[in-house]
Amino acid sequence: MLRPIKHSLLFLLLFFTMLESYSQTPITFPLYLQKGDTVAIVATARSFQPEDLGPAMDSLRKWGLKVVLGKTIGPEYHQLAGTDKARARDLQNMLDNPSIKAIWAARGGYGTVRIVDMLDFTKFRKNPKWIIGYSDVTVLHSHIHNMGIATLHATMPINVKRNSEEAIQSFKRALFGKGLKYTVPSRVQNRMGAAEGQLTGGNLSILYSLLGSPSAIQTDGKILFIEDLDEYLYHIDRMMMNLKRNGYFDNLKGLIIGGMTKMHDNSTPWGKDAIGIVREIADAYDFPVCFDFPAGHMEDNRALIMGKKVKLTVNKDTVSLEFEDRK
């Protein structure tokens, strides 16, 4: 009787191992940039003026890259960088242009979700290129991740002049395909452990707004990164509860919390800060948790390759995030 039982246990082990591997989205990586390549800068959301591009363009040119500005740099349509059709047309042109090797969103704000369903990704799927940005650009990170194509969560032109040198150099390394590994101080609220999986995520408010749509985040077997800006604490609780109730933490491998910047409270306090809110929900699970990772709405906004397999190690004194070298 022992042999059939042993075989059954072996089968179950193999089954669950295969199931875990299938939960990882097969990822295609755009070609990393080389000197002489062209980067397009477009505004997919709020308006952005060309006079604010100086530091960003200086960096790209110093790295040997060419720059093309989209037609959305300059126009103003109320808060937005042109009408929805104009912004969609500008981004579409850059997606379809084979000479463009990366598309860098000029800034965030709000508006990318208004155009994502107008876009045709047929040529982009055949000839993927790096989509770069954070905050509102999370719409594109999540949508494109579901296509199985990697994107780059990194600083934007509006922030370059205020970014730390570490942030700028991490962006350059990510663009040119150099290895990325971060080691940062741990904090007492972290939960120790180690995990491996594809990195996904972005701005919490945007991820929350995408739930139930074709752009909704997929977290099974993955490591989730979240950050946010200028939110009330009870909003953070509401969004985290929604993710929990929808099962987004059930098969999560690890959780990385970036900047929870400029949070607000009511006259009657919520009773927990953002770290306390996240930790309370995470306590129902056993994956490692890291707070205050240097990414998000902060000067030290390190580059993250969404879709890349990473190893997260949370110790008492340090946290390390290492990106797999091979694709």
What does this structure look like?
The chain has 327 residues and is of the alpha/beta class. The protein has two domains: 138 residues, Rossmann fold, CATH 3.40.50; 143 residues, 3-Layer(bba) Sandwich (Glucose Oxidase, domain 1). The protein has nine helices and 13 strands. The chain is globular and about 45 Å long. About 6% of the residues have low confidence.
How would you sum up the major sheet? 7 strands, mixed
Under the CATH scheme, which class of the largest domain?
A: Alpha Beta
Rg measurement, Å:
20 Å
- CATH superfamily label of the largest domain: LD-carboxypeptidase A C-terminal domain-like
CATH architecture descriptor name of the largest domain: 3-Layer(bba) Sandwich
How many individual β-strands? 13
Report the total helices.
9
Number of domains: 2
How would you summarize the topology of this molecule?
Elements lengths: L1 H21 L15 E5 L11 H9 L3 E4 L14 H13 L3 E6 L16 H5 L3 E4 L4 H8 L5 E3 L11 H11 L5 E5 L7 E11 H7 L12 E7 L3 H13 L8 E8 L12 H9 L6 E2 L13 E3 L2 E6 L3 E6 L4
Parallel strand pairs: 1-2, 1-3, 3-4, 4-5, 7-8, 8-9, 9-10
Antiparallel strand pairs: 5-11, 6-13, 7-12, 12-13
